[in-house]
């Protein structure tokens, strides 16, 4: 879904930053279910609506194409509104800005990531039970799983499980199963996945249907055809920093991503309503 309030500028900027005129005001005006990705070529904001359709966002680009930046910007907005976040950072360097922030569980090692995801599966069950008892999950905080370098992380989780599992344990890693279940059941439980990767094995292409928003940077024609086969005309690649295509429905919006530094993202998380005004 594209949210289109009045934009402060008529054309896509060369860069879009938190300090630019109108950007903070735009973020303040958005409800907590909408996260601003950036602005289109006609100056319109492009947002992901986590309460509409599938609740997850997939980000894919070549190395250096801005996937970490997009995840950082979206995560900061959600935390700013009181969401909790499980940050899975196999590289141990992509999201250190979240260290010590309220509501964040930061997991840098594969064993920690495995244990956190197994716990996540239990949380999903708990939330569904809560919904069955109370009718909805509106009183539960949003929980966002930030999965950086997803393909490598999933591969490492499978290898880790092969080294620790007992003979009576299932062959598939319960951590991988937890992510898969979250992709299919997350919406009703106010649980979201922000995933950077190509959706290669073990999930397969059917998992793509659980992402209502795709943010595609410098990707190959083959990746376009695999992740967004419903887009008839594949857009030309662009090496401009922060320039992506946001695929929502049958449309691919050329978009300049909102760029937040680590320090800006951390500060935005702890900004109060009084400071905003």
TrEMBL record:
Keywords annotated in UniProt: ATP-binding, Nucleotide-binding
UniProt-recorded name of the protein: FtsK domain-containing protein
Domain FtsK span(s) in chain numbering: 43-226
Origin superkingdom: Bacteria
InterPro entries for this protein: FtsK_dom (IPR002543), P-loop_NTPase (IPR027417)
Lineage summary: Bacteria, Bacillati, Actinomycetota, Actinomycetes, Kitasatosporales
Sequence positions that bind ATP: 61-68
Originating species: Streptomyces lavenduligriseus
């Amino acid at each position: 879904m594209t949210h289109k309030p009045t934009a402060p500028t008529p054309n896509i900027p060369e860069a879009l930053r938190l300090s630019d005129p109108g950007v903070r005001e735009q973020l303040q005006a958005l409800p907590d279910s909408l996260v601003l990705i950036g602005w289109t070529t006609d100056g319109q904001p492009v947002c992901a609506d986590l309460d509409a359709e599938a609740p997850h966002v997939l980000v894919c680009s070549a190395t250096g194409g801005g996937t970490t930046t997009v995840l950082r910007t979206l995560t900061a907005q959600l935390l700013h509104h009181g969401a909790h976040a499980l940050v899975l950072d196999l590289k141990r360097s992509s999201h250190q800005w979240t260290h010590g922030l309220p509501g964040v569980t930061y997991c840098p090692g594969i064993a920690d990531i495995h244990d956190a995801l197994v716990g996540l599966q239990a949380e999903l069950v708990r939330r569904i039970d809560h919904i069955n008892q109370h009718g909805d999950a509106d009183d539960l905080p949003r929980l966002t799983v930030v999965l950086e370098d997803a393909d490598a992380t999933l591969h490492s989780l499978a290898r880790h499980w092969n080294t620790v599992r007992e003979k009576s344990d299932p062959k598939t890693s319960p951590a991988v199963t937890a992510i898969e279940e979250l992709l299919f059941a997350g919406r009703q439980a106010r649980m979201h996945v922000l995933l950077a990767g190509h959706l290669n094995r073990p999930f397969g292409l059917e998992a793509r249907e659980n992402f209502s928003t795709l943010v595609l940077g410098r990707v190959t024609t083959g990746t376009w055809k695999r992740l967004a086969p419903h887009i008839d005309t594949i857009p030309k690649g662009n090496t401009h920093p922060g320039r992506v295509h946001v695929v929502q429905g049958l449309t691919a919006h050329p978009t300049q991503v909102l760029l937040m530094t680590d320090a800006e993202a951390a500060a935005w998380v702890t900004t109060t309503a009084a400071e905003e005004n």
